[in-house]
Amino acid sequence: MQHFKTLSSYLDYLKLPRPEHPMLSVFNSKGDGYLPCPRESSPPITNDCYTISFKKYVKGDLNYGRTTYDFTNGALIFISPRQVLQWDNSVVFEQKGFSINFHEDFLKGTDLGLQIKKYGFFSYSVNEALHLSPKEEKQIESIVENIEIEYQNNQDVFSKDIIISQLDTLLKYAHRFYDRQFLNRKDLSNDLLEQFNKQVYQYFESGQLQEKGMPNIAQIANEMGVSQRYLSDTLKKETGKTTTEHLHLQLIEEAKHILLQPNKSISEVAYELGFEYPQYFSRLFKKKQGISPTEYRALYKMN
Hints:
Number of helices: 12
Number of domains: 2
Order of helices and strands: EHEEEEEEHEHHHHHHHHHH
Mean pLDDT: 85
Helix content: 40-55%
CATH topology of the largest domain: Jelly Rolls
CATH class of the largest domain: Mainly Beta
Number of strands: 8
Low-confidence stretches: 60-72
Largest sheet: 5 strands, antiparallel
Distance between the termini: 62 Å
Structural class: alpha+beta
CATH architecture of the largest domain: Sandwich
């Protein structure tokens, strides 16, 4: 797989103009203009850059998953370093919007460099892009214009700090808008929870729990057609619990049934549930139920 260590080499590959700054590039369509079109197709590639792009598709169709979106046809997409990218020429379109690319080293030694990892949307798939209302779109475009002004001007000792400050503001707004998107799609959130619970239940019923241990959440998310981070963030926003917490709840419910079999020790129950260490099972059970597995078994017998 081809990997690009510099921003310039990555833009060269895309057949885009060289950047004004060795670690930052800004493309912004204005008026009747369109964004420069990258190469029509590419095998899997990676690079060391972050990308923030807003695309309005003017000609051609582009499906963003199975969800019907209520806002404009503009989508804000975030890509992190070393994320695998691949596209083909099955869709022909012209696009308006903007694209900001910056090397990860551009943030080194800054507060944003430490904080950017917390933004889970850099790990989302394309079909989980942020769709903006017209008002939100104007807010984002205003920030990008400020970045572009600094980018195009003769850069001085203040330029980098100002650009990074604007990037920080853009990401904070994106975080807020994603919260809105999660809340506006409660039906989708509920559907994801139902699908997740169904996948876990099928895993339990298939006997894989005893053979392979606890299910891999990334594999479950893949079976559902969403990214692991998006699934966890969506469920957290809607239910207050992450995918791991929902998995633990199902494990505890399964444990309750098995604990009622008096011929099995606590260790045997733990191993049957896929726990490598019985102590971990006991700690998790007590954390979720307030009593130990032994106490639960004794309490049930009393009742």
